[in-house]
Amino acid sequence: MINCNNVCKSFGDHMVLDRISFDIPEGTVVGLLGPSGAGKTTLINILTGQMVFDEGSVSVMDKDVRKLKGSDKNRFGIMMDRFGLYERFTCTENLSVFADVYGIPQSRVMEALREVGLGDAAKTKASDLSKGMRARLLLARAMMHDPEIIFLDEPTSGLDPKSIRGIHEMILKKKKKGCTVFLTTHNMEEASELCDDVMLLNDGHIVERGKPDELCRRYYHRKKIKVRLNDGSEKEYDQDGDIADVISDLIKQGRVETIHSEEPTLETVFLELTGKKLTED
Q1: Which residues share a beta bridge with 3?
Q2: Which of 46, 16, 52, 21 is nearest to 34 (CA)?
Q3: Tell me: the pLDDT tens digits for 86-119?
Q4: For the segment 170-207, what is each residue's pLDDT rounded down to a tens digit?
């Protein structure tokens, strides 16, 4: 559904994307992970035909992205934070505008609002919505015409856990219907939950790619066991032949509260590869 081959993009002397290549098959959720400023939004702008790249080639649905017509672009949906809402319009009025743009029946507006849990807020102005409700409205706008591909740029950034869960459920429902989803995020938990495949982007380069759990296993070098004792202290041990006796003695003494292995996450994988964190403290 998406092919990116040796794509480069610079702003002045700053190379934002350097020889980016990947393929995304139909019906999958693929995540692009990287810290702020890594080039994630630039890449999604290129994939959706909003920005011209300097070198390489990009095709979406087997068509050169530079030659996509309006009817082609209607086959995908876009949710980006900078795509604002009409603040004085109600939820219904906001979606009504885009129903006309997409050439779909106005009856689809209320259906889309109900699908994202905004049926009761249909007459509420966008300016009066909470941040979570605004995100749902943006998602409804991206999905209301049943696109084949959905591009999501940091879809849950800054939202509360309840809103995040709701948006994740909607994304997974679209995947079950065969929709292809390309999302950018710096949230490792989001990527692990949603994505079939992830790409790690750093300084304009894709430094690693794979299934989230496979990537974590691939970089499982630091094999540790952490033991929390009843007095609140924690001890960390290497997984070697001597650890069994040590932990056994602690258990016999009744001092152990919890035991768990220190498994890598996408955050620790990214840190090992780049020396940087995906998220800021």
Answers
A1: 23, 59
A2: 16
A3: 999 999 999 999 999 888 999 999 999 999 999 9
A4: 899 999 999 999 999 888 889 999 999 999 999 999 99
| Buried/exposed code over 230-243 (b: 16+ C-beta within 10 A; e: otherwise) | eeeeeeebeeeeee
Kindly state which CATH superfamily the domain 2-209 is placed in. P-loop containing nucleotide triphosphate hydrolases (3.40.50.300)
Q: Where are the domains of the chain?
A: 2-209, 222-263
Q: pLDDT tens digit string along 28-72? A: 999 999 888 889 989 999 999 999 999 999 999 989 999 988 788
Nearest to 187, CA basis, from 143, 139, 140, 153 = 153
Looking up tokens 């609002």 gives 113
Query: Could you tell me which residues come within 8 angstroms of residue 68 by beta carbon, excluding any fewer than 6 positions away?
Result: 49, 60
pTM, entire model: 0.82
Two tokens, residue 94: 């906001």
SS3 label, residue 119: helix
Residues 6+ apart with CB under 8 A from 210: 197, 198, 218
- Helix 107-115, helix 91-102: angle, nearest 10: 120
Token digits of residue 241? 């032949």
Count CA within 13 A, CB hemisphere, residue 275.
Answer: 1
Q: Measured between alpha carbons, how far is 95 from 212 in angstroms, rounded to an integer?
A: 35
